[in-house]
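Protocol step 4 of 5: obtain the predicted structure for the target chain.
Materials: sequence only (see below). No template structures provided, no constraints applied. The aim of this step is simply to have a reference model before the mutagenesis design in step 5. Sequence pasted as it appears in the construct record:
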Amino acid sequence: MTSIELDDTAPRRAPSAAEFAEVQASPQFQELRTRLRRFVFPMTALFLLWYLGYVLLGAYAHDFMSRPVFGDVNVGLLLGLGQFVSTFAITALYVRFANRELDPRAATIRGYLEGDRA
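Step 4 output (structure tokens):
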């Protein structure tokens, strides 16, 4: 395998505050922010409802949560493990979403800010 030399020492142009404000007001940045919010807010609400349901069941539905499923494993344990599974699933979904939808748009905006526009 051969290696390539990356020029990480090349100075990047530092954008000014006015350029940041200009980009923030641009349709491209607004689209990026809208796409992020369309994913994050519903997913957060869904997870918080799922977690709240689990806590409420644990607090008020003792008979249901202690119902055996197989051996010493009960419903409460399975729902608790489901919290971990859902956290990993949401993380995987976000990574896939960010790689596909957010990162290319952010790279374009970053390239505009750091690159020469002359």
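Step 4 remarks: Strands lie at 68-70, 73-74. The helical segments are 17-24, 27-60, 62-65, 75-114.
Proceed to step 5.
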